[in-house]
Specification:
Radius of gyration of chain A: 19 Å
Keywords (chain B): Cell membrane, Membrane, Transmembrane, Transmembrane helix
Structural class of chain B: mainly alpha
Strand content of chain B: under 5%
Main location (chain B): membrane
Distance between the termini of chain A: 55 Å
Helix content of chain A: over 70%
Order of helices and strands of chain A: HHHHEEHHHHHHHH
CATH architecture of chain A: Orthogonal Bundle
Oligomer: heterodimer
Order of helices and strands of chain B: HHHHHHHEEEEEHHHHEHHHHH
Number of domains of chain A: 1
Organism (chain B): Modestobacter versicolor
CATH class of chain A: Mainly Alpha
Protein name (chain B): Branched-chain amino acid ABC transporter permease
Number of strands of chain B: 6
Number of strands of chain A: 2
Largest sheet of chain A: 2 strands, antiparallel
Largest sheet of chain B: 2 strands, antiparallel
Strand content of chain A: under 5%
Strand order of the largest sheet of chain A: 1-2
GO molecular function (chain B): branched-chain amino acid transmembrane transporter activity
Chain lengths: ~300, ~375
């Protein structure tokens, strides 16, 4: 019982990170219609920039993460403004392929700058744990869960109450009507990329604090794990991204511990994809997605 | 070169109002000359090239081109983005090793087996993958690659697990062994024989794809790509058309995989990862989507990128040298692939094929129609 609860908590923590990563995809897909694969690159850059700001420049951890978020956000806005915006509405292919091209540039650049070794982010939690009865919860898990909740609340409030957030929702719903109401699609697109960059940077930093995994080449592979999450939740549903992330995180964590050896090496790595395939069979539009009505 | 396999021209003559050219494997005299030139080149190039290094590179490009022609059927002609092509190439490679190496059967069996196995798996996966549109197919195909690597790692008896396996399948056709080609007293290098094999298969694949795209099934693929609902209204069965494209693409990927295994002599599950899929996607985008020669041009171009990076690596300041931090050759190649995908999509969406066409027009402003033998078009029109 305690053991299961223990697994559940690490699962929730992993799920929170996945939810953050998935939200970055959803924000851009919802308001610009682009399936932005560059998100994986933002994750990598976020982790490494936090490292540089904290370990090399000696900033306090929180400030370092904030700086990394700002920098990655700025880069995301820059990419949108210079490259992606003019092909955002071209057709289905071009935006996916272009963001894909940008994605495969970033990890080797990061490997070139920061080298191929594992880095220690030097997060303030270290290996500290909180004991509740028989349960041990690492401070890192707690920090991830709490900061994700805070971020999600801020996220919700922004979309619900702020003028820009409402403008973004309007653009997502009907771009032309929003344009007619004086909402600038340029601002909305850039803002959504900025938000995606921020989420990616934060998610990447959190990924990099995982005990054992750490910051090194291949971080973008973890970002790809957010992709089955989006399918589970539905490409355009923020709530779906969060719940899908939690679901995948918990199931994967149980698979890590509970699946017998006979399933072969690395079974837990394909668990998110198997879950995704099952969901696609039953409900192709995702658990929380909406079925698209298409016009000729 | 008697390559007619279609209905005799008499049946087309019976319906004079038909404007469709008669169905032949090679449509025009220019095309037949082209086939002859290709055959001569496939034999002449390896015999006159003494550098096994460059022949090896051309062999790698030829294998990549076969796989890319397959992906081009799916992505270029049928309009479905896939990141899973490496899975089918890997499947073909391991099936080739199983049939040709472990079961010790000849190439006439293992090469088709690689294609058929990949095609069958493609047919089994297609109904799942094709339920969805847009980015979803790409995501499912991504799952294929991960699941494929997991399965391959755990099928130790065939794939050798993580460490991979030496390829024992032999490239022999009856008495001809392409890996130890001899002609009388002449003994050829392994690369020379494999060049003939690989580029001959590539030629056949191009001929098949060019012809499939002229049939009803092939035109249906392009109609679905351009507007699926409109195509369906016109009587194209979408599901079947897309499945056809998926199966053909997978089978070609499998054949490429079989040749890849023989060419490399050593394969391991991790080689068939997302990076390989990326390479194929880069090839068709850079070469030119939905064009016959685009994948071939793209394959040669993309295969040359790491070669040139290697050549200039020592003179670039930001490269890793000795123990220094810096870019590795693989890293720089990846960066160049990515940058080229972006640049080509923004500046030249139709790829290198369009660039070549532009150069030809600039050199010979009246080119195009003047260069073609007038008789071929004339004859089609009068029927």
């Amino acid at each position: 019982m305690t053991a299961n609860l223990q697994i559940l908590i690490s699962g929730i923590s992993l799920g929170c990170v996945l939810a953050l990563l998935a939200l970055g995809f959803v924000v851009v897909a919802k308001s610009t219609g682009v399936f932005n694969l560059t998100q994986g690159g933002f994750v990598v850059l976020g982790g490494y920039l936090s490292y540089t700001a904290h370990q090399t420049w000696g900033l306090p951890f929180v400030l370092a993460v904030l700086l990394s978020i700002v920098l990655v956000s700025a880069l995301a806005v820059l990419l949108e403004a210079t490259i992606v915006h003019r092909i955002a509405t071209a057709n289905l292919f071009t935006p996916i392929l272009v963001t894909f091209g940008l994605l495969i540039i970033i990890p080797p650049v990061a490997a070139g700058i920061w080298g191929p070794d594992q880095k220690n982010l030097g997060d303030p939690w270290g290996l500290d744990v909180l004991r509740v009865g028989d349960l041990t919860i690492t401070h890192r898990d707690l920090a991830v869960i709490i900061s994700t909740l805070v971020l999600l609340a801020a996220f919700g409030a922004f979309f619900r109450f702020s003028r820009l957030g409402l403008a973004m929702q309007a653009t997502a719903l009907d771009p032309e009507a929003a344009l007619a109401q004086g909402v600038s699609d340029r601002t909305v697109h850039r803002l959504s990329w900025g938000i995606a960059g921020a989420l990616g940077a934060f998610g990447g930093t959190m990924l990099a604090t995982t005990a054992g995994a750490g910051l090194g080449p291949g971080l973008e592979q973890y970002a790809l794990l957010a992709i089955p999450v989006i399918i589970l939740g539905g490409l355009e549903s923020p709530l779906g991204a969060v719940l899908g992330g939690l679901f995948v995180g918990i199931v994967q964590q149980f698979a890590v511990v509970r699946v017998p050896e006979s399933f072969g090496a690395g079974f837990y790595e394909v668990v998110p994809y198997l879950l995704m395939l099952v969901v696609m069979l039953v409900r192709p539009e995702g658990l929380f997605g909406t079925k698209k009505v298409r016009r000729i | 070169m008697a390559t007619d396999v279609s209905t005799p021209t008499g049946s087309t003559l019976a319906t004079p109002q038909r404007t469709v050219p008669p169905l032949r494997l090679v449509g025009s005299r220019a095309g037949r000359i082209g086939v002859l030139v290709f055959i001569v080149l496939v034999i002449a190039v390896p015999l006159n090239m003494t550098s096994t290094y460059w022949l090896g590179i051309l062999n790698a490009a030829g294998v990549a081109a076969i796989a890319a022609v397959g992906l081009n059927v799916l992505t270029g002609y049928a309009g479905q983005l896939s990141l899973g092509h490496a899975f089918f190439v890997g499947l073909g490679a391991f099936v080739a090793q199983w049939v040709g190496g472990i079961l010790d059967l000849p190439m006439v069996l293992w090469l088709p087996a690689a294609g058929i196995a990949a095609g069958l798996v493609g047919a089994a996966v297609a109904p799942f993958a094709l339920r969805l549109r847009g980015p979803y197919l790409m995501i499912v195909s991504l799952a294929l690659v991960f699941i494929g690597i997991y399965v391959a790692r755990n099928l130790r008896s065939i794939t050798g697990g993580n460490e991979g396996t030496i390829v024992e399948a032999r490239a022999t056709l009856g008495p001809i062994d392409f890996e130890e080609l001899t002609l009388g007293t002449l003994v050829f290098a392994r690369e020379q024989g494999l060049f003939i094999l690989i580029w001959a298969v590539l030629g056949l694949v191009l001929l098949v794809v060019a012809n499939v795209m002229r049939t009803r099934g092939g035109r249906a693929m392009q109609a679905v790509r351009d507007h699926d609902v409109a195509a369906e209204v016109l009587g194209v069965r979408m599901m079947r058309t897309q499945t056809n494209a998926f199966v053909l693409a997978s089978a070609l990927g499998g054949i490429a995989g079989g040749l890849l295994a023989v060419n490399l002599e050593y394969i391991r599950p991790d080689s068939f990862n997302i990076d390989l899929s990326v390479q194929y996607l880069a090839i068709i985008v850079i070469g030119g989507l939905a064009s016959l020669w685009g994948p071939v041009l793209g394959a040669v171009f993309v295969t040359l990128v790491p070669v040139f990076v290697d050549q200039f690596a020592t003179s670039l300041p930001f490269m890793a040298q000795g123990g220094n931090a810096g870019l590795t050759t693989t890293d720089l190649s990846l960066i160049l692939y990515g940058a080229m995908i972006v640049v080509f999509l923004l500046a030249e969406p139709k790829g290198l094929v369009a660039t070549l066409g532009r150069i030809r027009r600039a050199v010979r402003p009246s080119g195009g129609t003047a260069g073609r033998p007038p008789r071929t078009t004339h004859r089609e029109d009068t029927q």
